[in-house]
Amino acid sequence: MERTGAIEKQSMVRLENIKKSFDVSGKSVEVIGGIDLDIEKNEFVVLFGAGQCGKTTLLKMIAGLEDITKGTVYIDGKKSSGFHPGVGMVYQTTSLFPWLTVMGNVEFGPKARGIKKEERRKKAQYYIDLVGLHGFEKHYPVKLSGGMCQRVGIARAYCNDPDIILMDEPFGHLDAQTRYMMEEEVEKIWAKEKRTVIFVTNNIEEALYLADRIIILTECPAVVAKEYRIDLPRPRSMVSEEFLALREEISQLVDIPRESEEKAV
Length: 265
Ligand SMILES: Nc1ncnc2c1ncn2[C@@H]1O[C@H](COP(=O)(O)OP(=O)(O)OP(=O)(O)O)[C@@H](O)[C@H]1O
What we know:
The chain is of the alpha/beta class. It is built from nine helices and twelve strands.
């Protein structure tokens, strides 16, 4: 709880000294080394760090899908234990049900909660339209491109009315062009639907394009190395002076080669 004068501001997500160790061949390996974090309602927070630093593990602990070794997660002020219905997840690779159509996948959550057909169809249609898939309602995932599948995943997450949406490198497997398009889509949807989003990536441009705040994690065991509040106006230009200056600063901090340097090696 943050104190601002006499008023107490409650975080949507609060992590208190979160630690995680895995047992690997009988040895305890610490992956998360003690993370404290407060995330405000409707904030767009990006967890940024090198591959294998523990980002997915942290996200899973927030979702209640992974046991916490030490520390506490609070969701909307309440101590969280296990899966929380107010948390939705969009995964790295598509996790759609292949035997269900686009409509079937998006309405799956409300259907499981017993929402009547007419109501859940209306809602699912709204989110299908919002992610730009109008006309694809009856298609099966096998007939869709990677970007379209991720759109369905996003619509499915929103259709469950979560307060918090966790996105785990959702565009990591897409080609560069589709990735830019999807980043624009997510930004637009977030501007319209305003939820608390925690987005994992190891792509600096993506982080800077989307985030209100970037949390930079150290390599394993992950702790918060630094955080940046990004106040650039939205929608952002990836070639503005301020954007490029921040990209340079963060690149140097985390020493991640740019795409062109990676290719040159
Ligand atoms: N169930 C598990 N048992 C043992 N080790 C695990 C388990 N899950 C994750 N790890 C280890 O924890 C570390 C962090 O993994 P994690 O997937 O959280 O990293 P990440 O930052 O999300 O990686 P990437 O960016 O490559 O997706 C890795 O070394 C991984 O091998």
